[in-house]
What we know:
It is a single chain. The protein is of the alpha/beta class. The protein has a domain at 152-477: Rossmann fold. It is 34% helix and 14% strand. It has helices at residues 54-60, 62-71, 114-126, 130-147, 162-165, 171-177, 183-198, 243-252, 270-274, 315-324, 362-367, 372-381, 401-413, 417-424, 427-451; strands at residues 8-9, 14-15, 38-40, 48-50, 152-153, 209-211, 218-220, 233-237, 256-260, 280-284, 304-312, 341-349, 454-460, 471-477. The strands form four sheets. The chain has an eight-stranded mixed sheet, sandwiched between helices. It has a two-stranded antiparallel sheet with strand order 1-2. It has a two-stranded antiparallel sheet with strand order 3-4. Strand 6 (209-211) and strand 7 (218-220) form a beta hairpin. Helix 4 (130-147) packs antiparallel against helix 13 and helix 4 (130-147) packs across helix 15. The model is unreliable at 88-112, 171-178, 206-229 and 330-335 (pLDDT under 50).
Amino acid sequence: METRCKFWLPKKKRFCANVPLTPSPFCGNHTPRSDSQWIPCPIDPSHSVLEENLEGHLRRCPLLKQLESLTHQPFYQKGINAGTEEDPQELEVVTSETVEDSALAVDEPKSGELIYILSEMKRTVYGMSVPDFYRLVEKIECVHKSICKDIYESCKVPEACGMWVKREVDRTSCCLQKLPFQEKHVMQQVSILGNMEDFGLIKSFIAKERADCDDGIGYPVKDEFDYGNDVPAVVEFGAGRGYLTQMLADCYGIKRVFLVERKSYKLKADRSLRQKESLILQRLRIDIEDLNLNAVETLRGGPYVAIGKHLCGPATDLTLRCCLGEQSNQSNGQGSVNPNLRGLAIATCCHHLCQWKHYINKKYILDLGITKEEFHVIIWFTSWAVDADHGTDLPDVTDCRFHLESIEKKQCDGGDGVEGVVKNMKAVERSALGFMCKQIIDMGRLMWMKEHGLEAQFLKYVPSTISPENHLLIARSANVA
């Protein structure tokens, strides 16, 4: 016991078994830290290091080697899909209604500053007068009513995905990979693929019966994937563990797969995918912001479909710019479609993480009469979308008059300003307003895709009882039959 760390582990009901650091009674993991001595690693802020050891740590940080290798890749181009803080169309569009000293007017936050800016947004909203808050909500609801008309439900369960829906996936593969089978995730993936099939982006297996010409005996032949010689590759953005691609490969026979993800994950579907005959898999560990897709040698010149399930916040904008931005259209001119892009399907989420710099269609938002500062407030409002109980489906957010009547009543009753009004709003009211803001953001993305020559739709692909993040942007090139 004398040679063990003196830190008590309550769950294990014993002391730590590691050797203590002399002269401390604790091991390196449990030695009390002084806040003044530890600083975030400049290379990877997810861990910290003693300030006195910083110089030596920077030479051997685990992330350093990976970053050095990445910067030498031909497809790495720092900030190529990041967008700009101010677009050429964005002139002086600041209204007199903007709250003075608003923290929303600061420069675009970096990732580490996002939480601070969100807090400032909250304080700014609560600092507004009730009439100003009323007018802002009225503007949001009027804008939503005018532009969010083409959203419809399209919950698909294609026959091709029957093996996953009925839990008939390869058990050997599942045991090796410990693939998680959660029904809510499976139903989302199934509907995404079903809408892609319905939209013509992918084709299902076609079972054929052939007759023997000699003896006339018919026999079933193994399912064949009828794409001719023009089979598109699939690029999954924000792939995570890659289970959406796993289902796509299992059910639709895709043969070329590219997984784009900046983080490292355990229990990935990669091993199972690599066991499939003739399937080519390449994982690109890179931030979408820095990915020049045209420079990926193994993808260059071939048709592909882009997919993404729950691309958080600005990742959706980065993906659209990666597939359709100016760097993808250098040979075709501004506003044209990359000839290799067959289409895309992106399930959006986490709109409260969106940023003005990265947002893909600033001009559209400004043309709606929404200022940059109001856009930041809308981003904060989107976090209200999860306020309601999603055990039952939410009411139609297009029926919005109860918001205005509710707020107007609180205004007449006095109360504790905007903070009091917000606290007295029903959860379903806040949730509906949050969804309106989400849909306004996504409609701007939809319009941007249409401006770039894609046939695009915005739809609700699963009920909110399965997931409140249930909207899908789907598009195809005009030359896809």
